[in-house]
Amino acid sequence: xxxxxxxxxxxxxxxxxxxxxxxxxxxxxxxxxxxxxxxxxxxxxxxxxxxxxxxxxxxxxxxxxxxxxxxxxxxxxxxxxxxxxxxxxxxxxxxxxxxxxxxxxxxxxxxxxxxxxxxxxxxxxxxxxxxxxxxxxxxxxxxxxxxxxxxxxxxxxxxxxxxxxxxxxxxxxx
Length: 174
Prior knowledge:
The protein has helices at residues 15-27, 44-48, 55-81, 98-120, 154-163; strands at 6-12, 34-36, 141-146, 168-173. By secondary structure, the chain is of the alpha+beta class. A 4-stranded antiparallel β-sheet has the order 2-3-1-4.
């Protein structure tokens, strides 16, 4: 048997009103599930209390893996496995390996970051995202509040949303 989750969805018309509402609502002890916006809102991550992303660390590690594999592969193939003298250079001369190593670093870094982002964001090809309100892709800002995660009553949360500038408050079940 599947468990239904109930959400209160606050619709906001202006990003400044939304930003102040997030701060005020969190100060009142309401736990916000997520905020959806048609464009980036500066300061929203801080207002929601999100931690700094660790994606740059993953990018660095994937890049270092690409550099290491690129150099190792070329040195191994051209220096030991099938040594050839090309243009009178040594078997494993580093300067000609730099362009391929750079490209392999960028390739592994990009693929690694995309894969890491998809895994961390739980974006599977067979899973449809929850659409709290279709207008969040057009011109409205949407705040989703999970009623099961809050100890405050539904009516009280509706009142808090309205007091903080929500133009609409709807209930959604998934």
